[in-house]
Amino acid sequence: MTGLSLIAAVSVGAVIGAAGRMLAARCRTVPVWLPLAAGVAAALLATVLTRMAATDGPGPTLVEFVLQVLFAAAGVTLVALTADRPGTPSSGEIR
């Protein structure tokens, strides 16, 4: 993995995470750092998987970029959907 691939993964993940945070803020209470972390982690995972698949090119490729965006969007969506809603009891709470 090159340094440019790492920078691209962090950038893509942060942008997707910030966009997901803005969308999730309307209906759920999600900590600010959680969508960002999920987006960055998912984009890094996409980079690692792309590099393991031995795609051509020393730097980021189009396939790598597309997978970073898709993985980051899926990670942020998963975090936003599984976050607790305010005022609802969690699974361990009994009223």
TrEMBL record:
Keywords for this protein: Membrane, Transmembrane, Transmembrane helix
Transmembrane spans: 34-53, 65-83
Highest taxon of source: Bacteria
The protein, known as: Membrane protein YeaQ/YmgE (Transglycosylase-associated protein family)
Species this chain originates from: Actinoplanes xinjiangensis
